[in-house]
Structure formats: structure tokens, C-alpha cells
């Protein structure tokens, strides 16, 4: 009963999943147009907000992150056990090299389409006048393009990528929701999330390389995925170094006094 609810089997009589997959395949222009509109909108709002006070948006941000965390949690509970069952029955290479498990799992389609509303993350950043880094909007655009490309071609590795991303997003959006609510975390929590993101990208590279060697289909999608994941590893590693390693080194090198650890020691006259 629980599996039927989580895996959305009860929707099979109402939602034409196969038709939706075909529609995605027939409209490759949609993610391109959405990406252009997204970038134009983000930077237009960022420019318009230069001389305006930042919006607080605490409640909308909290609700948005809770919604994405719950969506990711249910997606994780559906995709991870689904992959485990297929691997136990047919083996890991079969699951990675065929679209059978993905075609029977509506969460793969929902996962790919969820990359569209996730673009709203960036609008919260620019409306609240928070720093917008290249990695953020690059990641959103490329992931949307890749997921749409994979859905259109019925890429066999989609279930694995979806499962990894949904698990990480469950933790990430739960963390963002807690922060929006007012909970404060130490550096170790943020560092752990970034580490998990890097691990996800490394596993993504391993899966793509495996499929390039073991599978006889879709080299275009695999190459797209390889380039995407390598670029993510580079950018997320740079983020990790800039955010944690360099800052930790600066704090270590900065002389302090016992009375006020935030104040530099003055030289003796």
C-alpha cells in the first residue's frame, strides 16, 4: 500500500506518462527557451534591484524549501528502492544500460520536469539581494538541458542520476528550510552538504564512464553527462576551497587576543 502511494501507481490511470515522455521528446526547444527566459529574467531583476531595498521573503522562502524538500524525500523513497529491486532481479549493468526501470517509474519524468520550477531558487536570491555566483545559474541551466535531453532520448541512466540528486536535495532543501525558519548551523553542516554534492558529481562521472564502456546506446547523452559532471566537480570543488579551505587558512593565520578573538593584536610600541 505504502509503495503504491509513494511510487504514484495510483496515478497511472489518470496521467498518460508515456504520452508525456513523447511530448518531451518532440519539444527539445522548450528547455532552451526556458533557459534564455530564466537568464534574462534573473539578470534583469538583479539590475533592477541595485537601488532598491532587498525583499525579506522569509515565509515564501520557508514554504518553497519545505515543498522541495518533501518532493525530494518522496522521490527518494520511490526511486532508490525501485533501483535496488531492478538490480537484484537483473543486475546492475542491465539497469544502467536499459530504460526499462525508468519507463515504469513516473518519478523519473517528475524529476526531470522539476528542474523547471527549481529555477525559482535564483529569483529568491536576486530579490533578497544575496550574492549570485556563476555556479548557481550555470548548474540550473545545464541540469535542465541535460534532464530534458535524457528524457527525450530515454537515457537508461536517468534513474541513478535522479536517485542521487533527490537524496541530496532532500538534505539540502531541508537545510535551507531550517535556515529560512531561523535555525543557525555551524560551518561543518554547510561543509558536509557541499561535500555530498561533490561526491554526487564524482559518482555521476563514474556512472557515465561505466555506460560509455558497457552500453551500446546513446553516446551523445553520455558525453553530455560526462562534460556536465566534470564541470560540476571543478566548480563545486572550487566553491569548497573558496568557502572552507581558504577561509579556514585566513582564520588560522590571523593573530588574535584571548580577550577578543575577533580583534587583531596591536604591535607593541
UniProtKB/TrEMBL annotation:
<keyword id="KW-1133">Transmembrane helix</keyword>
<feature type="transmembrane region" description="Helical">
    <location>
        <begin position="30"/>
        <end position="49"/>
    </location>
</feature>
<keyword id="KW-0812">Transmembrane</keyword>
<dbReference type="GO" id="GO:0034626">
    <property type="term" value="P:fatty acid elongation, polyunsaturated fatty acid"/>
</dbReference>
<dbReference type="GO" id="GO:0034625">
    <property type="term" value="P:fatty acid elongation, monounsaturated fatty acid"/>
</dbReference>
<protein>
    <recommendedName>
        <fullName>Elongation of fatty acids protein</fullName>
        <ecNumber>2.3.1.-</ecNumber>
    </recommendedName>
</protein>
<keyword id="KW-0444">Lipid biosynthesis</keyword>
<dbReference type="GO" id="GO:0005789">
    <property type="term" value="C:endoplasmic reticulum membrane"/>
</dbReference>
<keyword id="KW-0443">Lipid metabolism</keyword>
<keyword id="KW-0808">Transferase</keyword>
<dbReference type="GO" id="GO:0042761">
    <property type="term" value="P:very long-chain fatty acid biosynthetic process"/>
</dbReference>
<feature type="transmembrane region" description="Helical">
    <location>
        <begin position="220"/>
        <end position="241"/>
    </location>
</feature>
<feature type="transmembrane region" description="Helical">
    <location>
        <begin position="195"/>
        <end position="214"/>
    </location>
</feature>
<keyword id="KW-0276">Fatty acid metabolism</keyword>
<comment type="similarity">
    <text>Belongs to the ELO family.</text>
</comment>
<feature type="transmembrane region" description="Helical">
    <location>
        <begin position="61"/>
        <end position="84"/>
    </location>
</feature>
<dbReference type="GO" id="GO:0009922">
    <property type="term" value="F:fatty acid elongase activity"/>
</dbReference>
<dbReference type="InterPro" id="IPR030457">
    <property type="entry name" value="ELO_CS"/>
</dbReference>
<dbReference type="Pfam" id="PF01151">
    <property type="entry name" value="ELO"/>
</dbReference>
<keyword id="KW-0472">Membrane</keyword>
<dbReference type="GO" id="GO:0019367">
    <property type="term" value="P:fatty acid elongation, saturated fatty acid"/>
</dbReference>
<feature type="transmembrane region" description="Helical">
    <location>
        <begin position="159"/>
        <end position="183"/>
    </location>
</feature>
<feature type="transmembrane region" description="Helical">
    <location>
        <begin position="134"/>
        <end position="153"/>
    </location>
</feature>
<dbReference type="GO" id="GO:0030148">
    <property type="term" value="P:sphingolipid biosynthetic process"/>
</dbReference>
<dbReference type="InterPro" id="IPR002076">
    <property type="entry name" value="ELO_fam"/>
</dbReference>
<keyword id="KW-0275">Fatty acid biosynthesis</keyword>
<feature type="transmembrane region" description="Helical">
    <location>
        <begin position="104"/>
        <end position="127"/>
    </location>
</feature>
Amino acid at each position: 500500500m505504502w509503495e503504491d502511494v509513494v511510487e504514484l501507481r495510483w496515478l497511472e490511470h489518470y496521467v498518460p506518462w508515456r504520452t508525456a515522455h513523447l511530448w518531451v521528446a518532440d519539444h527539445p526547444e522548450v528547455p532552451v527557451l526556458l533557459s534564455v527566459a530564466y537568464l534574462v529574467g534573473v539578470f534583469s531583476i538583479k539590475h533592477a534591484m541595485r537601488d532598491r531595498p532587498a525583499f525579506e521573503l522569509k515565509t515564501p522562502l520557508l514554504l518553497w524549501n519545505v515543498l522541495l524538500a518533501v518532493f525530494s524525500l518522496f522521490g527518494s523513497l520511490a526511486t532508490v528502492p525501485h533501483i535496488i529491486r531492478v538490480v537484484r532481479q537483473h543486475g546492475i549493468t542491465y539497469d544502467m544500460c536499459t530504460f526499462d526501470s525508468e519507463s515504469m517509474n513516473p518519478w523519473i519524468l517528475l524529476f526531470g520536469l522539476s528542474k523547471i520550477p527549481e529555477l525559482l531558487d535564483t529569483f529568491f536570491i536576486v530579490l533578497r539581494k544575496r550574492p549570485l555566483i556563476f555556479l548557481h545559474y550555470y548548474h540550473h541551466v545545464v541540469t535542465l538541458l541535460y534532464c530534458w535531453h535524457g528524457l527525450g532520448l530515454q537515457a537508461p541512466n536517468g534513474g541513478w542520476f535522479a536517485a542521487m540528486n533527490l537524496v541530496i536535495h532532500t538534505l539540502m532543501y531541508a537545510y535551507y528550510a531550517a535556515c529560512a525558519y531561523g535555525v543557525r548551523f555551524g560551518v561543518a553542516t554547510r561543509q558536509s552538504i557541499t561535500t555530498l554534492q561533490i561526491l554526487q558529481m564524482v559518482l555521476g562521472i563514474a556512472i557515465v564512464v561505466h555506460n560509455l564502456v558497457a552500453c551500446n546506446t546513446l553516446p551523445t547523452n553520455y558525453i553530455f553527462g560526462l562534460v556536465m559532471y566534470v564541470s560540476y566537480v571543478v566548480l563545486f570543488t572550487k566553491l569548497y576551497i573558496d568557502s572552507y579551505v581558504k577561509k579556514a587558512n585566513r582564520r588560522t593565520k590571523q593573530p588574535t587576543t584571548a580577550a577578543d578573538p575577533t580583534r587583531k593584536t596591536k604591535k607593541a610600541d
